[in-house]
Amino acid sequence: MSKYLKKIVKALEIEAEKQPEMFNFAIPDTWMSFDYKGQKISVHDGNVLVNPYQFYRSLIKDVFLKEKPANLSGYFTQNEVPYGLQNGDWIKASSVYSMMIRTSGSYDHDRTGYLMDKNFYNLKDTGTFIKTLALLPNLKRMGIDVLYMLPIAKYSLKDKKGELGSPYGVANFTALDPLLKDPMCADHTSVEDEFKAFVEAAHALDMKVVIDIIPRTNSVNSDLILDHPDWFYWIDLKDLKNYAPPMVEGLKDTLPAKKEYFKDLFASPNVEEHLHKFRKNPKEIDAKKWADLVNAYKSEDNKKEILDLVQSMFKMTIAPAFSDHINDPQPAWSDVTYFRLYLDHPVNSQPYLNKLGEFEPYILFDVAKASYNPGSKPNKPLWNMLSDVIPFYQKNFGIDGARIDMGHALPPELITMIIDKARKIDPNFSFIAEEADPANAKASIQKGYNMIIGNGFLMEPRIKEGKFNDFVYNTRTMPSVVFACGETHDTPRLAARKNEEVLAKMLSIFNLFLPNTVPFLNSGQEVFEKQPMNTGIDCTPESALVLDKDDPLYGKLALFDRYSFHYLHPRRWEMIEVLESANKIRQSLIDILLKPNKIIPLGFSAPWDLAAGFAYPQKGKMTLVIANTNCEEDVIHHIKLDNIPSSFHKDGQIVSQIFTSENNAPLDSIYVQSDGHIDVNFRKGEVKVLVIKA
Asked: Where are the alpha helices (DSSP H) in 24-100?
């Protein structure tokens, strides 16, 4: 039990003997989240100097190994499922933290001002599975019980974006990113051992581990090209320079790839020109030459990537993917391509293609949206491989759930294969759909997902437009649980929007109490990080330029560059401490939170008031959670209680305050007024929890 954590401890002990005098390795004080007995020096700026070998050995022994032992089966094969939430529905009672190991565990340990793969101590500044263990105790303290990890698989460095490349450009589904290996353990452990230790540590703290898988796309330099060139789409190398999604005259921008638009789509000269760029795969063109290429790639003296060899020997290349929406202004995605899911063209497109002539397998909006436009001949070997990815991680690492990236574009039959294979191993494996549109929530649940992402990240920051209230008051009746979140790894940061940290704090706390939702924190949100990880959704060109120009991380994006969150933010403990207090109240309400139809929305003096709140009935008492969504002014809110039973709003009844997000706010005496309302003072962005006893 806890086999791999013990293996890490042994490796650290061996390496510590080689570095007995090493004692100038800086970590942020928020990583010092346990009673560390070793030697340390606290620096006035928030850094703590430690011997990293001793620190991480102590962290593992004094925190994770002192908790319950854990093995590498799914969490709920070892533990009872709470609240009767079977078949992966345990996610409904969870609180999720989105984590990117490469960035979340990154820090300038030698304080040079730069993040290096090999720093002054010959260790990594960038994140590893081992270093990221230091975050878990504080996340547990904040109520987090699910670690949702952005992709951790090996990705390609060819045509990479930024300094490090995107982890979404996966080159090998079943190989872990070698950059996540920690040199502290030298060659005593593998990166696989270290991920196993990470899962053991999470399970020891009653945390579940959810990974991101990307079955729709793969790197243009995928390891799979070698054995399966027929799984990809090919063009001549000379056409790559001007390769782009074709614009269709007469159609609006960003239309879904539905067959009602195909008459105009395939009548476009730009589309016909685009289709003629595609070629047979190189193995089919010249099998002998392909065999020579394979031998050259496998030779001991080869230093070239597989795609480099193809480009050199065949003058061909993989066609990049692009958006599945017609006339989407996004350029092609240079680092990834689509898998060839069908061996024939989409059925919906064939009548139009037949009129134009013969075409090789191609990438176009119809092919990209295979859920709308399937072929009739599934690429069964590819489907089998894709549906075996999650079982690989279940069997080898004991993961508990997965988000399927771009699952909305996959054929329903393939989604069924993926879900069924995982649930055969672990009936309580949980699935999250990358589905933002609440209108598709019911369909996602019918496919076997446990929840959808939802559109909270678009709605919540738009308070004065009324979208925040639309979101929070409508979650109760959604057919699926959704994330309660104001930001993701693809959006602007809350702390960079108008009202900045006031907004970020208010939403982070109030999201703990929304009915029919799962609270979601984006890594770095707890320290008011301003710089987005990516500028993918709801962003402007200026979104990446929110840091001071003298900040070493100015203009960098965590999804592509070396990046460390600003863990030394002056208010770095504030969110951690207030979320800890708020989560204790959330846990006391969890029974009623799982029954959204029992939760009562509260009204205010007018529908346009900048406020939101709910009442949670329990035996003998009514708990009110209310947010002042006015993040610019202190106000008095007139809160109507006529929705709740009359026994809780009698004239003169005492209302007790048990929580405020603003510790310096005065504690007022609150009484129910004769017409059944209460008047409550709020600081800007303040969240309060009040209790009325019958």
From this structure: 52-59, 75-78
Helices (H) and strands (E) in the chain, counts: 23, 27
Beta strands at 687-693 and 654-660: parallel, antiparallel or unpaired: antiparallel
Whole-number Cα distances in Å, 654 to 628, 669, 672, 677: 21, 8, 7, 12
Q: Is the pLDDT of residue 96 over 90?
A: yes
Q: What is the pLDDT of residues 308-367, one digit of tens each?
A: 999 999 999 999 999 999 999 989 998 999 999 999 999 999 999 999 999 999 999 999
**What are the beta bridge partners of residue 318?**
234
Contact 675, 649 (CB under 8 A): no
Give the C-alpha separation, 24 to 55, whole Å.
Answer: 12
- The C-alpha atoms of residue 343 and residue 137 are separated, in whole angstroms, by 49
Closest CA to 622 of 683, 676, 686: 676
Between vectors from CA 155 to CA 151 and to CA 156, what angle results, nearest 5°?
155
Rounded-to-integer distance, Cα 618 and Cα 639, Å: 20
Least Cα distance to 314 among 296, 337, 340, 299 occurs for 296
pTM of the model: 0.95
pLDDT tens profile 487-540: 999 999 999 999 999 999 999 999 999 999 999 999 999 999 999 999 988 988
From CA 608, how far away is CA 480, in angstroms rounded? 27
Beta strand 336-338 pairing with 430-433:
unpaired
Residue 528 Ramachandran class (φ > 0 left, ψ -120 to 50 alpha, else beta): left
Distance CA 507, CA 519 (A): 10
CB 210 within 8 A of CB 149: yes
Phi/psi of residue 626, nearest 5 degrees: -135, 135
Q: Which residues contact 601 (CB under 8 A, 6 or more apart)?
A: 473, 476, 613, 614, 615, 643
